[in-house]
Design brief:
The structure holds two protein chains of two kinds. Chain A contains six helices and eight strands, in the order αααβαββββββααβ. Chain A is an alpha+beta fold. Chain B has one domain. The chains are: A alpha+beta, B mainly alpha.
């Protein structure tokens, strides 16, 4: 009797497991989309899965790389912002040198006047400009015409003086920004410019000021023929 | 009593299996080969019952041992890239047919014997009537 019960239980257990597994499998087969994968063998599926995984990893690596690059660019951008402010300052400085901006500062104002006996000629102005430049003038103007690198001071028809292609007439007020001590002493030195002009019988007045305003050059400076020459780096061929 | 046990086991197993979660397709091939192995053992068991040499220990060890072995072989084949499960299926299904043949013959023999017995009885009755 006992053996029979054991056998019955064992066989019931076996039948239970078998049917359970079978029904699980039926359900699995039923719910899996076999038509899509039935033509593929498991190994193929496996290799496909592996390839997809590899692709995924590759793409992930690329994403990482791109993120790094973005961060790099961001850092560079910040640097660029710094660089751009520096460049802007440089540009402003260069513009000041070129005479594109109004300037103010300490300096000297020299006034040359025609008198009854002698007229002021253009070479007087040129000499004055040279003297001022030697004395370290940073900006010079004649009757508010800014003297820049391509400014001219010419006598036309022995009657009129042109500065920056504009006619200037006496009294000629020459302003110069720079170290006022240097400028003054450079002009008033013995046998200097002031003495020379006075000995010529021409009128000259000057005074130093702490706040001289020199306007910007209002002409155009265009380079039509000149181009920047860049020395080509010699390639070292081995 | 054994029949009741079998029916009970089947019903409970069917219910449990119906509520079991779906297994991944990758592993369902292992399960299917295990089912084939188990079914083979079941038919072998029935055949041995009919022959009269049924042994519970052999039946149970065959049931679980064959299932596990077939799963292991399938796994090995997967690793070796050889379809070993095909060999397992051939063997198990072949044996299932053999066992089914034994069962069929047994019942056919039984049936034939029954008919012959009936004929004998009829013949005897006819003879008896004739004698009478």
């Amino acid at each position: 009797m006992k053996a029979k019960v054991t056998m019955a239980i064992s066989i019931a257990f076996t039948a239970l497991i078998l049917t359970m597994v079978m029904f699980t499998q039926f359900k699995t087969v039923d719910e899996t989309d076999i038509t899509a994968i039935e033509t593929m063998r498991e190994t193929e599926l496996r290799s496909e899965l592996a390839s997809w995984k590899a692709k995924y990893e590759e793409i992930e690596a690329k994403i990482d790389e791109n993120e790094n690059r973005i961060n790099e660019y961001k850092a560079e951008l910040e640097n660029d912002e710094n660089a751009s402010t520096i460049l802007e300052n440089e540009v402003k400085e260069a513009e000041s040198y070129l005479g594109k901006t109004n300037l103010q500062g300490e300096g000297i104002v020299v006034t040359l006047k025609d008198n009854d006996t002698r007229d002021i000629i253009h070479s007087d102005l040129l000499d004055l400009i040279n003297e001022l430049n030697i004395a370290g003038a940073e900006a010079i103007s004649i009757n508010d015409e800014r003297i820049v690198s391509n400014s001219e001071v010419v006598l036309v028809n022995n009657t009129m003086i042109l500065v920056n292609t504009k006619r200037v007439a006496g009294p000629y007020v020459v302003k110069a920004i720079g170290d006022k001590q240097y400028l003054q002493s450079a002009l008033t030195i013995k046998d200097g410019y002031v003495d020379l002009i006075k000995s010529d019988g021409k009128d000259i007045e000057y005074y130093v000021d702490d706040n001289i305003i020199i306007p910007a050059y209002d002409g155009e400076q265009v380079l039509k023929q000149a181009k920047e020459y860049i020395e080509e780096e010699e390639e070292v061929k081995k | 009593m054994i029949y009741i046990a079998i029916i009970l086991g089947c019903v409970i197993g069917a219910i449990l299996g119906s509520f079991a979660p779906v297994i991944p397709y990758t592993y369902s091939s292992y399960l299917s080969i295990a089912i084939v192995a188990a079914l083979d053992t079941v038919f072998g068991g029935i055949a041995s019952v009919l022959k009269g040499n049924f042994d519970l220990k052999i039946f149970l060890s065959g049931f679980f041992g064959n299932s596990i072995l077939s799963i292991a072989l399938t796994f090995l084949g997967e690793q070796l890239n050889v379809d070993i499960y095909l060999a397992a299926i051939v063997v198990f299904v072949g044996r299932m047919f053999t066992n089914l043949a034994i069962i069929r013959r047994y019942y056919i023999d039984k049936w034939v014997k029954m008919i012959e017995k009936k004929k004998d009885v009829q013949n005897e009755e006819v003879e008896n009537k004739a004698e009478v």
